[in-house]
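Please fill in the sequence for the structure shown.

STRUCTURE ENCODING:
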């Protein structure tokens, strides 16, 4: 072959073994997909104004750093905390301390109309 004629596998204007600039480039090899690898869920957590509830919702961010098999522990912890917060709301405020009454006034045990002389 002559120097002016490209050989097999070469383009005009390139040296043997050199890749032409206009040649299509292969994308870099993709990292293997591991479905159990940690991946952020991207869930937006809006503050509720209740410190206990907000702390539990922030705990959900821990799942972003864990593999899928570790999510259950986080979700159960958050669920338990939210359930406790709801139970506390159902309990209502503590009774206000005041004078103790032995018996209420309007009960059959202390009905002044039944005790006439």
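FILLED IN BY: designer on duty
SEQUENCE:
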């Amino acid at each position: 072959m002559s120097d002016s004629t490209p050989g097999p596998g070469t383009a005009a204007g390139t040296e043997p073994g050199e890749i032409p600039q206009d040649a299509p480039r292969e994308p870099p090899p993709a990292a293997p997909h591991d479905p159990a690898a940690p991946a952020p869920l991207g869930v937006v957590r809006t503050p509720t104004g209740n410190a206990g509830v907000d702390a539990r919702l922030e705990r959900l961010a821990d799942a972003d750093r864990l593999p899928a098999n570790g999510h259950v522990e986080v979700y159960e912890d958050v669920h338990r905390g939210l359930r406790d917060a709801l139970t506390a709301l159902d309990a209502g405020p503590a009774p206000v301390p005041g004078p103790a009454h032995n018996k209420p006034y309007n009960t059959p045990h202390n009905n002044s109309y039944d005790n006439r002389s």
